[in-house]
Amino acid sequence: MLTVEARxxxxxxxxxxxxxxxxxxxxxxxxxxxxxxxxxQATAATxxxxxxxxxxxxxxxxxxxxxxxxxxxxxxxxxxVRRVSDxxxxxxxxxxxxxAANAATQDSFCAQTTCTITEIFDQSxxxxxxxxxxxxxxxxxPDNLAVASMAPVTVEGHKAYGAYIAPGTGYRDDSTxxxxxxxxxxxEYAVLDGTHYDNGxxxxxxxxxxxxxxxxxxxxEAIYFGTEKAWGYGSGNGPWIMADxxxxxxxxxxxxxxxxxxxxxxxxxxxxxEGESSQWAILGGNAQSGSLATDYSGVRPAGYNPMHKQGAIxxxxxxxxxxxSAGTFYEGVLTSGYPSASTEAAVQANIVAAGxxxxxxxxxxxxxxxxxxxxxxxxCTGDYLSQDSGSDDVGITAVTSGSSSATKADxxxxxxxxxxxxxxxxxxxxxxxxxxxxxxxxxxxxxxNDGSQQFAQDATFCVQPGNSGSNWSFESDNYPAKYIRxxxxxxxxxxxxxxxxWDTATLWTEDSTWQYAAPWA
Length: 521
Ligand code: AHR
Ligand code: AHR
Fold this sequence. Notes:
With 521 residues, this protein is α+β, with helices and mostly antiparallel strands. 16% of the residues lie in helices and 32% in strands. It is built from seven helices and 34 strands. The strands form nine sheets. It has a ten-stranded antiparallel sheet with strand order 3-2-4-5-9-20-11-12-14-15, with helices on one face. Strands 1, 8, 10, 17, 18, 19 and 21 form a seven-stranded antiparallel sheet that branches. The longest helix is centred in the N-terminal third of the chain and has 37 residues, at 4-40. It is elongated, with a radius of gyration of 25 Å. It starts with a helix and ends with a strand. One alpha-L-arabinofuranose (AHR) binds at residues 377, 379-380, 486-489, 507, 511.
């Protein structure tokens, strides 16, 4: 006899399966209509990755992306965010059917608060949505959720956000429909940030156990990306695209080193793993240009033939919820059937055509730059944001070519990715490496990073168009609407009117607007 819980689970499964069938039928009809349209209007030729897989007979059975629609006809939700301020959620849709995500929805919903990504919807119609991963054999849970603003990019000419996986973060669906099980054939691809990785276990995307435990060799078949060398690795220093088949990340037929699997670290990297009976492959390449390389294609490792895939889907974690790894995910799919080389080539061409690019606000105040920061208030245009390396106080100080080298060094800052938010910046002291500009009681100091989250937030500033209408302003990460300002030659974070003397609206726009200057040091 079924328990109530099992009955409702069974009913949900049946409903889900029915919905999946209906959705699949709708897609077929949509495909026929699209086909009819294509015949009459040559311009309506747009195909997205899952249209390509479907046309080749290896349809997507899960399609996830926070950046764009993976079907030309898809106009449903891409992902859901939840904001900290009032715990409410909103769904992010494509700008139009088949288009890029409408990041403006996220930006306005999450303004002045922090959002996490609570769900990445399955665009394939199979209901295989990714949500917060539960505890597993290797780690407690639920896992953390990705902070939604951490991975901005441009795709199809529009701003969008990837899913930024810090260690501890993970997504999963243990109750899927139509994902390959046992030794059945499947394909998987993911577009990842090839510069964001670590050597933890295991930044994966793909097929895994439905019970969150390590169920033995062959129980999973997922894409892995990173520099974890415990089981396998390739040439160079990594990162490598490997296949996580459970109790092993494989870079080729045998465990350990396989020279043919190259370091693949393109800013935007396409990673693919395919598997069918007695055969599997790794493909990889630059998601911004060119074609894919086949890094491995051949027989299974010993002990992994046949496979025992279970058909759950994971993102950012290993099969047993090993959650010690980092990475950034933009889009990916699981297919039914083993995609052909020509199909994978067409998908890669589609990814390249999507035009992934690093997101830029156009400001010169970007991570990696060494700069001086000049005041714009008429009183003070010869002054620069400076620390006093004796007292660690920060204010504005006049600097000229005749100034001492110590004064010049104190007026110079090294910009690094924001300690609390990589989209923003932190200002490291040029005179005292390891010291950062931070606010404390709303006043600015250059202090040594103590590694705390509080310090990271106090030391993170998001560069915005200048409050006076030109140049740039530095908005506090944890006090949005408060900006770096000088007042009486002392540095603060200040709002436009407020309770502190330095919040005075008089000259606020000018005092909180700064000009880029070449580094004095
Ligand atoms: O196969 C590597 C990892 O080993 C799997 O992701 C995890 O389930 C196990 O710990
Ligand atoms: O910081 C110098 C000046 O001091 C500011 O422009 C003004 O707000 C205050 O009088």
